Amino acid sequence: MGSRRDFLQKLSVSAVSLPLIYSPANLFAADSEPYDGPKLKVAIMGLGSYGTRVAKAMQSCKRATLVGLISGTPSKIEKWKTKYGIPEKNCYNYDNFDAIKDNPDIDAVYIITPNGLHKDQTLRVAKAGKHVICEKPMGINAKEGQEMVDACKAANVKLLIGYRMHFEPKTVAVIKMRKEGMFGTPKFFQGQSGFTIGDPTQWRLNKELSGGGAMMDIGIYSINGARYMLGEEPIWVTAQETKTDPQKFKEGIDETIQFQMGFPSGAVANCLSTYNMNNLDRFFMTGSKGYVEMQPSTGYGPIEGRTHEGPLTQPHVTHQTLQMDGMAALIFDGVQPIVPIDGEEGVKDMKIIDAIFLAAKTGNKIEL
Ligand code: NAD
Q1: Half-sphere exposure of 55 (CA within 13 A, CB side)
Q2: Mean pLDDT for each 10-residue chunk of the chain (368 residues)?
Q3: Domain ranges for the chain
Q4: Of 47, 50, 71, which is best to mutate to test ligand 1, by the most ligand atoms within 8 angstroms of its C-beta?
Q5: Of 23, 94, 99, 176, which has the fewest beta carbons less than 10 angstroms from its beta carbon?
Q6: Strand 280-287 vs strand 131-134: parallel, antiparallel, or unpaired?
Q7: What is the per-residue burial (b if ≥16 Cβ within 10 Å, else e) of 146-160?
């Protein structure tokens, strides 16, 4: 088992050969060093459950800082203002947040609201001239995603999607191993993503606000994971849907979908997305020379896993802290993560989701 020092040494060597690729190790290595560069000044829109997690994680960021709030609930604003020392002039609601365009304290807005609101909110933030960080899924279909990409391009602002796994140390290490050929030619990926959803009245089960069920929320991790674990883009999908509770999972809200993807090399993926089973958070990938399995694979961590050579030992760091520091590095220094996190990356997942829904509905194999 490698020591932390070995790990850091290995990563600093790869940092030399890949100078513009962001590595979580940059942060570990620099832990003891003070950072005095620019900080990405972020306002969070949507002070719900995930927004709360991001705000907390940002307290440990070096390059990003929470400076503003956008919420429809005045009592939440009051509580958060006190907790995080946010000035009143940086607080907005959903009606007046276009005024951030005149607020030099805010560089970027992190949209952490229901999926069905992301597109319009992104367009408004872009119009205000601020960078957009948007949670996954970026919208409710590829058409919306492309509109978001176009709007941010036209406004000359960045559009980044909250793909926190693209900064997670074990995930990053596995992607590097795959790129370096440790698994040989990737042949097969299996992704299982799911949990049992509770409250039937929540927005996640409302088609207008969610755009779909488990696939939009959790199945997207298997889609994105298949792409970064295999290192290819799928060319076809097939899908089968199962619904055991049509009362809870109404028309347009998928409960369970099994789906398959085919890749240009001949590699295949077989995945499960569900709102009706717990403990489904597992990735497996095998190639001509070896394999990797991760379980949990995309939860908040620690991620655990092993390859044919032994356990993955990279340290756990709060994903959202790495993500926000990494996004600041991208915006300020153009440092790219090992797998993209931009709007175009988001659209790729949305196109696959559109195709999976169509495949499940028609029973046809859908070419991408
Ligand atoms: P949540 O319900 O806990 O929070 C949503 C927030 O949006 C709430 O504060 C709510 O008040 C606000 N909101 C604004 N307008 C609303 C409306 N019309 N209806 C309902 N709520 C409204 O949800 P969440 O779990 O924080 O999810 C928010 C987003 O974050 C989703 O896009 C979700 O997919 C994403 N998310 C990402 C991760 C991740 O690991 N990257 C994890 C959880 C959620």
Answers
A1: 25
A2: 41 41 50 81 98 98 97 98 98 98 98 98 98 98 98 98 98 98 98 98 98 98 98 98 98 98 98 97 98 98 97 97 97 95 98 98 98
A3: 35-161, 165-318+343-367
A4: 50
A5: 99
A6: unpaired
A7: bbbbebbeebebbbb
State the residue for tokens 């620099």: 30
Find the 339 Cα to ligand 1 centroid distance in Å.
24
Q: Which fold has domain 35-161?
A: Rossmann fold (3.40.50)
Q: Write down the CATH number for the domain with range 165-318+343-367.
A: 3.30.360.10
State residue 24's pLDDT score: 58
At residue 169, φ and ψ (nearest 5 deg) are -55, -45
Question: What's residue 19's pLDDT?
Answer: 39
- Expressed in angstroms and rounded, the spacing between residue 199 Cα and the centre of ligand 1 is 14
The pairs formed by 78-83 with CB atoms below 8 angstroms and a separation of 24 or more are: 80/47, 80/55
Tokens, residue 219: 């199945």
Tokens of 310: 């032994």
